[in-house]
Design goal:
Number of strands: 6
Number of domains: 2
Strand content: 15-25%
Number of helices: 10
Structural class: alpha+beta
Order of helices and strands: HHHHHEEHEHEEHEHH
Radius of gyration: 19 Å
Strand order of the largest sheet: 4-5-2-1-3-6
Shape: globular
Helix content: 40-55%
Length: 236
């Protein structure tokens, strides 16, 4: 099930798109429908997520925005969206937001190396959590064991403000279109990865060390890059 399909399932199952019509009646079989949503989307999808996402969906309808879908697409987090919605202007300047550009590989834990040359090039506000979510989705669809021998692991990552990260991702996807397998997955050899690294140099991004990121990343903070960007630009 794609992220868009999960979003559609969430909306239709909870009848969020029926608000204001005789078919809405949110309390009818509500517990059963909530259980169904959690079962299909995954155990990590908790009741508090349903409550928050339902409110965000109705906000989208009123204001003609698409925050809820962007959350399902891992472009935004629930906490970040609540910050945006509750801010005085209804937006947060993208220059103030930290995001990550990454290249990830499917990793064989037994051999401690990538399974093949397929690489996902994407962006996320929460790098480590994004790797965990990708691995959980893989586990649900491919493994019947208690522990999967595979996981997604980023092999290259950079951090910067959202605008620069989005521009870099778009440029990289365009330049590597011939190597595209499907969506954000590409067949990349070492030369291709070096090409990505060269393209990244055109943007104000900072390389992220894997071990340092795993130890120090605080996924609840979205403004942690400002000082680093300013120091790199020589502002202080």
């Amino acid at each position: 099930m794609t992220n868009e399909e999960k979003f559609d399932f969430f909306v239709k199952t909870l009848r969020l798109d029926k608000k204001g019509t005789p078919d809405y009646n949110p309390n009818r079989d509500l517990e059963k429908r909530i259980t169904e949503v959690i079962s299909v989307i995954g155990k990590g999808f908790k009741r508090v997520n349903i409550w928050n996402l339902s409110n965000i969906y109705h906000y989208d309808v009123r204001h003609k925005t698409n925050y809820c879908l962007r959350i399902f697409n891992d472009e935004l987090t629930i906490n970040m969206t609540k910050r945006i919605i509750n801010s005085p202007t209804g937006v947060i300047d993208k220059d103030d937001l930290t995001s990550y550009l990454y290249i990830t590989a499917l990793w064989d834990l037994d051999d401690d190396k990538p399974v093949d040359e397929k690489r996902k090039i994407g962006i996320s506000f929460e790098l480590d959590d994004r790797m965990k979510r990708l691995s959980r989705e893989l586990y649900k669809t491919t493994s019947t064991a208690t522990k999967s021998p595979y996981m997604f692991k980023y092999i290259k990552a950079w951090m910067g403000n959202v605008k620069d990260v989005e521009k870099a991702e778009q440029r990289i996807h365009k330049e590597l279109d011939d190597q595209r397998k499907v969506g954000e997955f590409f067949y990349l050899n070492n030369d291709d990865i070096e090409q990505v690294e060269s393209l990244v140099l055109n943007y104000d991004l900072i390389s992220v060390n894997e071990n340092e990121e795993s130890e120090k990343q605080d996924n609840s903070k979205i403004f942690d890059l400002i000082d680093k960007i300013n120091k790199k630009n020589g502002h202080y």
